[in-house]
Amino acid sequence: MKTYIDLKNVHVLTPNLKKRLSGVTSTIVNLVPKQGKLGVKIAATGPGLPDHLPHVGFGQFWKLWQLPEDGKCRVWHARRNVEMLPGIIMRDILRMKIKVIFTSDAQRHHRKYTKWLISKMDHVISGSQKAGSYLERESTIIHHGVDLSRFTPSPDKAKERSELKLDPGQKLVGCFGRVRLQKGTDLFVEMMIRLLPSHPDWTAVITGRVTAEHIGFADKLKARVKEAELEDRIIFAGEVDDIEKWFRVLDLYIAPQRNEGFGLTPLEAAACTVPSVATDVGAFSELIVNDKTGIVVGVEDLDALCLHADKYMSDETLLKTLGKNAREYVTENFSLEKEATAINAVYEAVRNA
Q: Distance of alpha carbon 252 from its chain centroid, rounded?
């Protein structure tokens, strides 16, 4: 059962108004408990959220006409259009005592409707410098962070590989995320078809959900792997619940996306001492330090992806150095605590304004 709390004891509401699991949902699930531990009285609202999160039901929303005990407006933290609009309606039409902020990760020119919604926000957070450049107003740049207690280096990769029914003697290169064209899963498959024959000690792993509309795409990739006679070395593991375990057993991560909002996977890999070869989408160029924690190449540049992956796969010492650097870099710059602390500071500033 959900953990319901009284809205009178809440200063910040983070809505999740879509049932379908997404990156936004994961952000809320990861951040809310951390923000609460750091001192903010925060709760989530809406469907599709796990029971352990502090939750406020819609039936309590009438209390938004009242100020909390400290006499300051509450914050409604939207992350989608569908969450900005009710925030505006509650504040401007129903005259509820709230302020509305929005986090934007999108790296595209917004439509007129979205621009209008954003213009009505009391404050805007951008997940990256790139995302902020598409807004026609000032924003606070706060990069997403990774849970460093969950994503950790493996103490024994061979043992953990065996537990996942993988060959403990093989090095592993992975590509994780939904299997679809946008995510560049086909580029990863083509990379591995090129590279694996000259790297007999490596195996490739693909994890991620295949939704109904992308079954044909996934089937073509599997057929391509079968045609290349690499079925035993390019493994489609499907959707997994314990993704941190799969990151820990990797030696190299590939993020070949064609399009991305932010893109957390290179940080999750880095936290597990795994360097990345990534395309220049999302915030990847702000998360990876070239030649120190990995490399960022052009979008759909298959030759460059192969060139750098081959370089890393051929040099175990370099891989370990990059992995060590990556863990240090993400610990210093991209912890979940750092993100939560920065967002909490925005809440405090907006509530005091």
A: 18
| Residue 210 to residue 217: CA distance in whole angstroms | 9
Quote the CA–CA distance of 344 and 41 in Å, as a whole number. Answer: 10
Whether residue 337 is predicted with pLDDT greater than 80 in this model: the reply is yes
**Alpha-carbon span 6 to 292, nearest angstrom:** 48
pTM greater than the 0.85 cutoff: yes
Q: How confident is the model at residue 26 (pLDDT cuts 50, 70, 90)?
A: confident
Tell me how many degrees the CA angle 205-327-334 measures, rounded to the nearest 5.
100
Which pLDDT belongs to residue 257? 97
What does the CA dihedral 61, 67, 68, 70 come to, rounded to 10 degrees? 160
Q: Residue 327's closest CA among 180, 162, 146?
A: 146
- Paired sense of beta strands 12-15 and 74-78, if any: parallel
Residue 24 has pLDDT above 90, yes or no: no
Instruction: Quickly name the fold that domain 3-145+336-352 has.
Output: Rossmann fold (3.40.50)
> Which residues make beta-bridge pairs with 277?
254, 295
CA atoms within 13 A on the CB side of 285: 10
User: Which CATH architecture fits 157-333?
Assistant: 3-Layer(aba) Sandwich (3.40)
Long-range contact pairs involving 217-225 (C-beta distance under 8 Å, separation at least 24): 217/179, 217/180, 217/181, 217/185, 217/186, 218/179, 218/185, 220/186, 221/179, 221/185, 221/186, 221/189, 224/189, 224/190, 224/193, 225/189, 225/193
- pLDDT band for 21, please (50, 70, 90 cuts): low
Q: What tens digit of pLDDT does each residue of 174-205 get?
A: 999 999 999 999 999 999 999 999 999 999 99
Positive/negative CA dihedral, 111, 117, 123, 124:
negative
Residue spans per domain, the chain:
3-145+336-352, 157-333
Cβ neighbours of residue 59 closer than 8 Å, sequence gap 6 or more: none
The pLDDT score that the predictor gives to residue 306 is: 98
CB 108 within 8 A of CB 182: no
Distance CA 244, CA 273 (A): 12
What pLDDT, in 10s, does the model give residues 219-257? Answer: 999 999 999 999 999 999 999 989 999 999 999 999 999
